[in-house]
Amino acid sequence: MSNGPKVDPPAATRAAAKPTLLAGGNPQIAKGDGDVPVQAYIAAMPGWKRDVGRRLDALIVRTVPDVRKAVKWNSPFYGREGQGWFLNFHCFTAYVKVAFFRGASLRPLPPAESKDKDVRYLDIHADQQLDEAQLADWVKQASRLPGWSGPRSS
Q1: What is the pLDDT of residue 19?
Q2: How far apart are CA 64 and CA 87, in angstroms?
Q3: Could you tell me which of 134, 111, 124 has the C-alpha nearest to residue 48?
Q4: How far apart are CA 46 and CA 28, in angstroms?
Q5: Which neighbouring-strand residues pair with 120?
Q6: What's the predicted TM-score (pTM) here?
Q7: Which residues contact 8 (CB under 8 A, 6 or more apart)?
Q8: What whole-number distance in Å separates Cα of residue 30 and Cα of residue 7?
Q9: Is the pLDDT of residue 1 over 50?
Q10: How far apart are CA 58 and CA 107, in angstroms?
Q11: What is the dihedral of CA 129, 142, 98, 38, to 10 degrees?
Q12: Which residues contact 74 (CB under 8 A, 6 or more apart)?
């Protein structure tokens, strides 16, 4: 029996615990900065979505070597230091949704609209052939734009 005070485990330890899957199979991962929580999210993605997550992460890192990573709101976020976030992705039941926060400025436009006039989406389905050259081009363009800072409480 421990006599000491209860200590909150570090983010890396919390990220290593088996996460709960939320609606649509989205992993519930503790908020945290860096690669560790992002890799924990990817490892917890169910089924075929895990491979999509690995491919997205590798493509983003190849395209933007100085990318900044974090998990916020149960989604991996990618950004540039001092510029904010340019992209995130999220698991849904039938697809992985990639959000480009300044997607309306990308050419060609990513295919899906958002209620937010600046945001555009790419939905990746299980048997879809991913155009990695186009995706890398969008990532490169997005990383050069002013990013999204999110709500102050993030």
Answers
A1: 78
A2: 12
A3: 124
A4: 12
A5: 100, 113
A6: 0.85
A7: none
A8: 16
A9: no
A10: 22
A11: 110
A12: 22, 26, 27, 28, 29, 41, 90
